[in-house]
């Protein structure tokens, strides 16, 4: 009997790649997404990439805060587990619009948890983030590192983690895995799905990609005076397909009778600087990326990378791809889809 999985935010970047891996793994998937920062085209392409398994995918355009619609979803299908990606994720916007972030991310999750409990579905994989470590004093970050989010987005992730721990404490029937991702990059090797942020990208790689295809004149590097090998910030970049596989591993782990509420880092365990990443992308694409050096961004940490020992040991998962593959697949997606899932017109850029 194949398992029914609800994937919230399944049309998004990490969600769509995870949905594809789920389908290929024989799961039946319902995607719930409000398409606030994603595209229904992604779902269509996932269905195509899944081949014969595409028929096990269905999509509902819903908002998690709409309780009656979520209740209807759970009444229609008996879900074995939920993978919860849905949430707003731009750090800068969260500082400007904190209530929007708390309403969408925290209240949406509370509604989801309440409806899950009412329908006896108490298995959850939650997409948390390395932002819960704030500015780590020591690296690598382990799952026991001190938690201190430094912006509203990070706090929504941290609050939801705490809510999950409390929910499990109050009712041990709940099995919850919290996955703290580091910096997801790359795309499916087919080049048919990838990251397509609306507006100005917040993360390095979509920005680099938009410069490479001629949508932006130059990459702004925030801070080149850090105490790192080349002065630029160091992050743990992880291939999105590795990350998707980490979710399948977490889903399997939920059937372990010993699981309560557990947290795992998903990263490569290696730090890469902004300039190293740009150089790797230049090699993969054959394009020169013009740089503009700027001051440090408020709230940016100097060096952040993961300890991945716990995930390797307990989930039997480890990242397989390095930065060369990440950049190769990123460029393959970018060159095939210079305007993401939309046409130039729909992205506000004329040909």
If you had to describe this structure to a student in words, what would you say it looks like?
With 351 residues, the chain is α/β, with parallel strands linked by helices. The protein folds into 2 domains: 212 residues, NAD(P)-binding Rossmann-like Domain (Rossmann fold); 100 residues, Alpha-Beta Complex (UDP-galactose 4-epimerase, domain 1). 38% of the residues lie in helices and 17% in strands. The protein contains 11 helices and 13 strands. The strands form 4 sheets. A 7-stranded parallel sheet has the order 3-2-1-4-5-6-11, with helices on both faces. A two-stranded parallel sheet has the order 7-10. Strands 8-13 form a two-stranded parallel ribbon. α6 links the parallel β5 and β6. α1 runs parallel beside α2, α7 runs parallel beside α9 and α9 crosses α11. The termini are far apart. The C terminus is likely disordered.
Give the class-level CATH name of the largest domain.
Alpha Beta
- Give the SSE string: EHEHEHEHHEHEEHEEEHEEHEHH
The major pleated sheet works out as: 7 strands, parallel
Strand order of the largest sheet: 3-2-1-4-5-6-11
Strand content: 15-25%
| Distance between the amino and carboxyl termini | 49 Å
- Rg, Å, rounded: 19 Å
Mean of all residue-level pLDDT scores: 95
Q: What form results from the Cα inertia axes?
A: globular
Quickly count the domains.
2
CATH architecture of the largest domain: 3-Layer(aba) Sandwich
Let me know the CATH homologous superfamily of the largest domain.
NAD(P)-binding Rossmann-like Domain
Question: Helical segment tally?
Answer: 11
Please tally the β strands and state the result.
13
Overall structural class, as computed from helix and strand content, comes to alpha/beta
Report low-confidence residues grouped into runs of 5 or more. 345-351
Domain NAD(P)-binding: 6-329
Keywords: Carbohydrate metabolism, Galactose metabolism, Isomerase, NAD
Family: Belongs to the NAD(P)-dependent epimerase/dehydratase family.
Organism: Gossypium darwinii (Darwin's cotton)
